[in-house]
Amino acid sequence: MNLYRNILLAIDFADQDDRVSQKAKLLAEQFAAQLHIIHVLDNIPMPDTPYGTIIPLDEDSEYDLLQIKKNKFIQIGDQLNIPPERRWMVWGEPEQEITRLAAQEHIDLIIVGSHERHGLAVLMGSTAKDVLYHAGCDVLAIHIKDE
Are 136 and 100 in contact, with CB atoms under 8 Å apart? Predict the structure, then answer.
């Protein structure tokens, strides 16, 4: 019996995402699981775009900031050898889109990076915590130390 068959890596382009990505790749290899990847756009304006909209990765965008993010996401997917059909860039609330995709794709494990929190950020929560409480599968939060 294979404990995990489908692993979803949620990335936010933080400085140490590479460390989280490499751990996700190793876990997928150890479990002979398929690795999926998602990036949720929540920090750039997307006029007239409803939440939950999947951003096509095979089309260039005239919106420079979006194109930069798409190129970086594609590069990470290529480095991890994740086929295009298991890559999602979505506009919306990270917790909602990550858990929605996990249910849709029958994900067994979600991997997220978790940043150190200080001051008011501790009270306001984090994406990792929100995913943990709302996911219908296991969640692994990999600690990312802020420099």
Answer: no
